Amino acid sequence: MYKAYRCNKCRVVFAIPTEDIRRMEKQGRYIACPFGHKEISEPDKYDSLKECMDNSVYVREGRRMRQIK
Ligand SMILES: [Zn+2]
Q: Residue 46 Cα, ligand 1 centroid: separation in angstroms?
């Protein structure tokens, strides 16, 4: 299960596995975009699907980001 986020600075859409989000929250870490911005928003499901089709999509894999589109 992934959760989609959108960066408010570079407009990139990226997805992070929900277990990673839980781990990061536990460690008190911020969720940041692949380019390190912390100004991110959580689009609703419809928006994120639409955005995913329109934009590059990154998925976090362990410590790095992989571009899947
Ligand atoms: Zn960004």
A: 21
How far apart are the CA of 11 and the centre of ligand 1, in A? 6
Range of the domain at 11: 2-67
Per-position b or e across 29-68, b if 16+ CB within 10 A of its CB: eebbbbeeeeebeebeeeebeebbeeeebbbbeeeebeee
User: pTM above 0.70?
Assistant: no
In the chain, the number of structural domains is 1
Task: Tell me the pLDDT tens digit for each residue of 16-47.
Answer: 888 888 998 999 988 888 889 999 998 765 45
CA–centroid distance, residue 26 to ligand 1 (Å): 23
